[in-house]
Design goal:
- This protein is α/β, with parallel strands linked by helices.
- It folds into 4 domains: 5-61 and 74-201 and 341-461, Rossmann fold (3-Layer(aba) Sandwich), CATH 3.40.50.2300; 203-334 and 470-515, Response regulator (Rossmann fold, 3-Layer(aba) Sandwich); 532-582, no CATH class; 593-854, Rhodopsin 7-helix transmembrane proteins (Rhopdopsin 7-helix transmembrane proteins, Up-down Bundle), CATH 1.20.1070.10.
- The protein has 23 helices and 31 strands.
- The protein has an 8-stranded mixed beta sheet with strand order 12-11-13-14-15-20-21-22, with helices on both faces. It has a 6-stranded mixed beta sheet with strand order 2-6-3-8-9-10, with helices on both faces.
- A hairpin with an 8-residue loop joins strand 21 (485-494) and strand 22.
- Helix 1 (5-21) runs parallel beside helix 3.
- The chain is rod-shaped, with a radius of gyration of 53 Å.
- The N and C termini lie far apart (115 Å).
């Protein structure tokens, strides 16, 4: 199994630590330092000493250790101007404090600054040197092998992994380690790193902010690249956790390290090339990022939207190395801009560098001006000779670039935090109490409690984990016409605010990848529009799904809905399935054609009945009217009028009263009508029997008995209707079942027994009337009314027998129309069969309207 360089270096640091604290058996009576002597690159004496660990070089010469002799010291290479800038920022803060009369008056701060060369093992060795000195032998055999710490606090390191190793070593000594750029959230664990503090926010907040930024722009399908160290791995782990909570999916997540094998980088490029996501979220150091974009440029892979961490998003040096503009349009988080008056001028004055170490200064100066001193050991040729008086302000490179001023400001705040803690411990007012013993633990405790404002007005304090408040600027890379990238602040992120107000973008135009003004799209599946729901694709992340249209009666009115909601019973889904609309209420109305025709037929029947009644009244003294029991005829005509009119109660919106009226009015008027017809039929039969010798039947069925029979038959129906209305009356009912998209407004029967009792009673009387009329059809009268009654009853029974299946099978308002049609048809059948022939004789055949003709005997005629 291959080990990363970070693991190897941490192992070597552990060996060095063991070598420091171990004492050989032969020399166990003398305290001796194990390991090589460490010399500071920059130093100055003072009353209180501060340590600094930066990297003036970014790498070292490779060496092969045979483990047969003690390894040689690292030979540092690749001068790195950023380390010099960090050191200058620390020196500026110390110089400012030493010249202050308000902070630590009478106390001078000194410093010892070392070059860690980017090596974790070297950083640990330096930390031990700062903690316990460099003397070879410092105690007699009788004394303990302990001594006060050489420095009271250490500024550095720049990266998270070195800080973890150093803090693990010096943590038991309680020496404060204040980092300006180590952001790994793991360093907030005070059980592992009790003396670590920092002036830059934890990656816990940065990772969450990056996830919210990605979500803000609607990118749900992204790739991720991280540095394969504690900084990258921990930061990306928090990002992935937050991204999953926000519904963001990672297509891939790969790790790189600058010392990794070349084929590893080729594999990463192949993964990016095969991916469909267009957004790449990074947790990379600038050096690792450069390796990635260099490899991508070799394959001409552009068009990706980069989301950057604070490690490189505000680094002009990284922008200058991006020759192929792969990172153009990048967006990410940066430490808020800062300005410290006097710092830039101090940093460009390199006199402190010249005063401490000539070798380091010479290498720095030669690299800065591309020149060579006479006595230099540099092998570079064809270079101009260095004078040592060149003007630094005329140089344009990463040393004179002040784009990392927020990071320099972090170092500045860290030094001031130590100074304020010392100010409190020494009870400084006009002067400080020099006799107060100092120990790192007391200083550490006071640093955690400090709260002060810098001269720029910024608050400085630490929470219980040694972290500052988390605030970031959102930076957008906007290339200019001359090819230089401009870092434009387009928003802010403040973790101290409520969750919905933490991320705030300003009203500024953003530039995206390939100088596009449009926000790039990076999703696995397009958003599901309203009217559809998401269905996950089998075996793929939750961001990959299909959009299925909602079923009838269901809607989704939001984008990317996971479910469809069923409409309430009175509503139905529209065609787009994105809203519920009220169902159309269907009932037989007067406005529609069918309702109007039935209304006209009802009124026509009423008028026709009225005309017949007028004719009968006008000719009430004629034999044909008198011979057919005029009182029952007029009562029958009245009941037929009611039958025609009761059909109107079935038209219109059903209400509580109309539902009760339509069925009861229909039942009573039809019974009244049938009772009259039945009375007329009985009269015909009785009249024939009365003509037989010795018959006195008519005295038992005279006019009074006829009226009583009609009243009695009708009263029975009235009682049935009263019982029906009392027990369970009809009521208006909304039928949702018959049609999906319509509401059928109808009258529920209430009691089915009541309804069928009413119909059954009508049917019973109709059958009885038909039977009696059929018996009287061949009576020997010239004008035999029984024949017409038989015809009318035949029509009546036929209509109502066919009504039942037609009524049951008719949907919605058509069932009401069928019932109205049955009422009108049976009513017209009675009116036409019984009264039209008589009206015809009265009006057109008056010669037959005589008593002789009516009473004449003729041969019986068959039906």
């Amino acid at each position: 199994m291959m080990l990363t360089q970070s693991w190897i270096e941490q192992g070597w640091a552990l060996l060095q630590l063991l070598s420091v604290v171990s004492v050989s058996h032969a020399e166990d009576l003398v305290c001796k330092r194990r390991g090589d002597h460490e010399y500071p690159q920059l130093s100055k004496d003072g009353d209180i000493m501060l340590g600094g660990i930066f990297y003036f070089h970014s790498s070292w010469k490779h060496r092969e250790d045979a483990y047969i002799h003690k390894p040689f010291q690292l030979q540092c290479t690749s001068l790195h101007f950023r380390g010099f800038q960090f050191a200058q920022a620390m020196l500026f803060a110390i110089e400012e404090i030493n010249n202050s009369t308000d902070l630590l008056p009478g106390i001078s701060l000194g410093y010892m600054i070392y070059d860690a060369c980017g090596s974790i093992a070297r950083g640990v060795s330096i930390a031990l040197a700062l903690a316990n000195g460099n003397e070879v032998t410092f105690a007699p055999s009788e004394a303990q092998c302990t001594r006060p710490a050489q420095v009271q606090a250490i500024m550095g390191e720049t990266s998270s992994s070195p800080c973890m190793a150093i803090s693990t070593v010096i943590g038991p000594f309680h020496i404060p380690l204040i980092s300006h750029f180590a952001t790994c959230a793991c360093l907030s664990d005070k059980t592992k790193y009790p003396s670590f503090l920092r002036t830059i926010p934890s990656d816990y907040y940065q990772s969450r902010a990056l996830a919210q930024l990605v979500k803000y722009f609607g990118w749900t399908w992204v790739g991720a690249i991280r540095t394969n160290d504690d900084y990258g791995n921990n930061g990306m782990a928090t990002f992935i956790e937050t991204a999953q909570q926000l519904g963001i999916c990672l297509e891939y997540s790969v790790a790189v390290f600058r010392t990794g094998p070349p084929h590893k980088m080729k594999q990463i490029v192949d993964i990016i090339k095969a991916s469909t996501s267009k957004v790449i979220v990074t947790f990379l150091s600038p050096m690792d990022l450069y390796m990635v974009i260099h490899e991508l440029s070799l394959h001409n892979m552009t068009g990706y939207q980069w989301v950057g961490n604070e490690g490189w998003i505000f680094d002009s040096h990284t922008a200058a190395l991006d020759k192929h503009h792969i990172l153009d349009g990048a967006i990410g988080l940066s430490i808020p801009k800062a300005h410290v008056s006097g710092m830039r001028e101090f940093m460009l004055d390199v006199k402190p560098l010249n005063s401490s170490s000539y070798d380091l200064f010479a290498e720095f100066w030669e690299t800065l001006f591309s020149c060579k001193f006479k006595q230099s050991k540099s092998s570079a040729g064809n270079l101009t000779e260095c004078t040592g008086h060149e003007d630094v302000t005329r140089v344009q490179n990463s040393f004179t670039d002040m784009s990392l001023m927020p990071i320099f400001y972090n170092i500045y705040k860290g030094v001031y935090a130590v100074a304020h803690a010392l100010h409190n411990i020494l009870s400084c007012n006009e002067t400080c109490n020099n006799k107060v013993p100092l120990d790192p633990f007391t200083i550490l405790q006071n640093i955690r409690k400090i709260w002060f404002k810098t001269k720029e007005g910024d608050e400085v304090y630490f929470n219980e984990n040694g972290d500052p408040a988390a605030k970031y600027e959102i930076i957008n890379w906007q290339p200019t016409e001359n090819g230089i990238v401009e870092f434009v602040t387009v928003g802010l992120y403040d973790a101290s605010l409520p969750a919905d107000k933490q991320l705030k973008l300003q009203n500024k135009s953003l530039i995206w990848t390939q100088n596009s003004p449009q926000v790039p799209l990076s999703v696995c599946s397009e958003k599901c529009p309203p009217g559809t729901r998401k269905v996950l694709q089998k075996g793929k992340p939750v961001c990959c799904y299909d959009c299925l249209r909602c079923a009838e009666g269901e809607i989704s009115n939001t984008t990317d809905s996971i479910t469809c909601v069923r409409c309430d019973p009175e509503s139905w889904s529209n065609e787009r399935r994105d809203a519920c609309v009220k169902k159309e209420a269907e009932f037989l109305s007067y406005e529609e054609i069918m309702g109007a025709l039935l209304t006209a037929a009802s009124l026509f029947g009423t008028c026709m009945t009225a005309v017949v009644a007028f004719i009968f009244f006008r000719y009430r003294q004629t034999p044909i009217v008198r011979a057919n029991n005029s009182e029952l005829s007029f009562l029958l005509l009245f009941s037929l009028t009611l039958c025609f009119l009761c059909s109107l109660t079935f038209i219109g919106r059903p209400s509580e009263w109309s539902c009760m009226l339509r069925h009861t009015a229909f039942g009573i008027t039809f019974v009244l009508c049938i009772s009259c017809v039945l009375g007329k039929t009985i009269v015909v039969l009785m009249a024939f029997r009365a003509t037989l010798p010795g018959s006195d039947v008519m005295k038992w069925f005279g006019p009074a008995q006829q009226k009583l029979s009609v009243l009695g038959f009708t009263l029975i129906q009235v009682i049935i209707c009263i019982l029906w209305l009392s027990i369970s009356p009809p009521f208006p009912f909304k039928n949702f079942q018959q049609f999906k998209d319509k509401i059928i407004l109808e009258c529920a029967l209430g009691s089915a027994v009541g309804f069928w009792s009413v119909l059954g009673y009508i049917g019973l009387l109709a059958m009885l009337c038909f039977f009696l009329a059929f018996l009287a059809r061949k009576l020997p009268d010239n004008f035999n009314e029984a024949k017409f009654i038989t015809f009318s009853m035949l029509i009546f029974c036929a209509v109502w027998i066919t009504f039942i299946p037609a009524y049951v099978s008719s949907p919605g308002k058509f069932s009401v129309a069928v019932e109205i049609f049955a009422i009108l048809a049976s009513s017209f059948g009675l009116l036409i069969c019984i009264f039209i022939p008589k009206s015809y004789i009265i009006l057109l055949k008056p010669e037959k309207n005589t008593k002789k003709n009516i009473m004449g005997k003729g041969a019986p005629k068959s039906l």
